[in-house]
Q: What sequence folds into this?
């Protein structure tokens, strides 16, 4: 897809009932949600029946069960939405774009969190006391990395942002998907209104703009996964409130607004500022390309 090109537009010859029920933004979002819930139920019941990933299983097996129980329903539900309802090829998830797009996302996510950790260290907030080479890193990579990166990006950027942008334009799509993304983290351990607002601004807006500029989900998935893995598995910082054992044994001091508190560095004003700089850069790129999409009533 080219900059500013929408993945789907309602065919002009579609019957009125299809335009308002099946092909409408609300109709497609509801279809995805219902399909995903059914698939989650069926697949997880199957995993439980097979005894795969129960409480007595090894950590890697439990992590793999969680990965399968989240990613497979999200991917299948999205492909059904695109193929059956929108009747198009899922170019935003094209396997050919995975190496370049995913690799780009991995680099961006790694650089951004290294910058956050570096600034916190320079400010005397982030402290390293040693290393833990024996850390069991694979379960965290499977869950907070791949599982969260793939499923959350398909839901928030692939479905919510993309479909809202088609109807209400880029600005509203950014606002709505960012608020949703922040609110989705409100029930995490140690979450506050501030941490959810920070997630919405630093991650919700940034990942929405990254999809808008690239028109691909792979950079978003790679960036999301790399950010989480670097934060928890490498730097030993809680990931959205979830405890993490990292290769670096670390702790943070200082006020919560600076250190992020028990929620992790994502609730730090440093992360918010650094990510906002990158978001602004993406906005400038989109502005120069004139790729911002106007609401459908203005386009028509």
A:
């Amino acid at each position: 897809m080219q900059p500013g090109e929408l993945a789907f537009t309602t065919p002009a010859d579609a019957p009125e009932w299809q335009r308002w029920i099946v092909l409408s933004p609300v109709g497609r979002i509801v279809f995805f949600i219902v399909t995903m819930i059914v698939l989650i139920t069926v697949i997880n019941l199957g995993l439980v029946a097979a005894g795969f990933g129960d409480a007595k299983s090894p950590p890697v097996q439990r992590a793999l069960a969680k990965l399968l129980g989240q990613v497979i329903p999200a991917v299948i539900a999205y492909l059904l939405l695109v193929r059956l309802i929108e009747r198009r090829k899922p170019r935003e998830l094209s396997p050919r774009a995975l190496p370049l797009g995913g690799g780009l996302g991995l680099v961006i996510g790694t650089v951004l969190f290294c910058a956050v950790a570096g600034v916190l260290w320079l400010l005397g907030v982030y402290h390293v006391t040693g290393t833990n080479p024996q850390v069991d890193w694979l379960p965290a990579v499977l869950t907070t990395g791949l599982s969260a990166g793939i499923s959350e990006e398909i839901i928030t950027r692939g479905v919510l942002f993309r479909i809202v942008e088609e109807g209400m334009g880029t600005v509203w799509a950014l606002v709505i998907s960012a608020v949703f993304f922040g609110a989705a983290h409100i029930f995490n351990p140690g979450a506050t209104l501030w941490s959810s607002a920070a997630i919405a601004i630093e991650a919700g807006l940034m990942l929405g703009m990254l999809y808008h500029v690239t028109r691909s989900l792979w950079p978003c998935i790679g960036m999301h996964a790399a950010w989480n893995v670097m934060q928890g598995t490498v730097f030993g910082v809680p990931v959205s409130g979830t405890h993490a054992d990292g290769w670096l044994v670390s702790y943070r001091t200082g006020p919560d607004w600076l250190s992020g508190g028990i929620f992790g560095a994502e609730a730090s004003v440093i992360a918010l500022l650094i990510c906002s700089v990158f978001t602004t850069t993406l906005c400038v790129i989109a502005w120069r390309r004139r790729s911002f999409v106007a609401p459908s009533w203005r386009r028509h």
Notes: Residues 53 and 62 are 4 Å apart (CA to CA). Strands lie at 126-131, 248-252. The longest strand covers residues 126-131.
